[in-house]
TrEMBL record:
Protein's UniProt name: TetR/AcrR family transcriptional regulator
Domain spans labelled HTH tetR-type: 22-82
Parts of the chain that traverse the membrane: none
Highest taxon listed in the record's lineage: Bacteria
InterPro entries: DNA-bd_HTH_TetR-type_CS, Homeodomain-like_sf, HTH-type_TetR-like_transc_reg, HTH_TetR, KstR2_TetR_C, Tet_transcr_reg_TetR-rel_C_sf
DNA-binding region(s) in UniProt: 45-64
One Pfam match: TetR_N
Keywords of the record: DNA-binding, Transcription, Transcription regulation
Length: 224
């Protein structure tokens, strides 16, 4: 598609339906996450996203000029949402173990209720985009990596507190975040919403996984 035609479609999309820009952007990202999950990165196009929305391609181009922009937008949005949800729990009441449990439940709940977006974000984004990425995309990639580091640090801090309190086995806190988040993120592999599933059902699953995570860190007998 020529640059002129793309700009023309983008202008048309910007005028479409008088939508609020943020809600329109959010709607596009949600549709794109579903498409990426169904078709994979290579087979997805902006045409697919526009078709899923029942919208013009110009509406998508207005916010996301390329598939890479969409893909990165999903990753960045997912990480920002996780941080905004989990970070306040780090300074909440209770012991470090209790706060870790609350953080793990919040993470698990998010993965189950925002499944397409989080499934895309948990994937290995670098394999699609690091090679041949534009300077603009590299800048966004670096921002996403920083968000991931910041998110891991939240868990490292509460793990470190739990070790000082004597509840958790002493180990490098940052390294300990890997199996913790790995156990939580595995939800995106096996979890599928069931017909008639209630919010109580989701809470039960989230609690079971959080229990597993916290118990696995408890201080036990030393290894031989």
């Amino acid at each position: 598609m020529s640059s002129a035609k793309r700009k023309s479609e983008a202008r048309a999309g910007s005028r479409s339906h008088g939508r609020d820009p943020e809600s329109s952007r959010r709607e596009i990202l949600e549709a794109a996450a579903e498409i990426f999950m169904e078709y994979g990165y290579a087979a997805t196009s902006l045409d697919h996203v526009a078709e899923r929305l029942g919208a013009t391609k110009g509406r998508v181009y207005h916010y996301f000029p390329s598939k890479a922009d969409l893909f990165l937008g999903i990753h960045q949005g997912a990480m920002e949402t996780l941080i905004a949800t989990v970070a306040p729990l780090l300074d909440g009441p209770g012991t470090a173990a209790e706060r870790l449990h609350a953080m793990a439940m919040a993470h698990a709940r998010m993965l189950m209720t925002r499944s397409p977006e989080q499934k895309v974000a948990v994937g290995k984004l670098e394999r699609h985009l690091l090679r041949g990425a534009t300077a603009r995309h590299q800048h966004t990639l670096q921002a996403i990596v920083r968000l991931r580091d910041d998110y891991e640090q939240l868990f490292a801090e509460v793990l470190s507190e739990g070790m000082r309190e004597g509840d958790f086995a002493v180990q490098p806190p940052r390294l300990a975040t890997k199996p913790v988040l790995g156990a939580l993120n595995w939800l995106t592999v096996w979890y599928q919403p069931r017909r008639g599933e209630s919010s109580e059902d989701i809470e039960i699953i989230a609690r079971m996984i959080a229990d597993f995570v916290v118990k696995g860190l408890r201080k036990g007998e030393p290894l031989p």
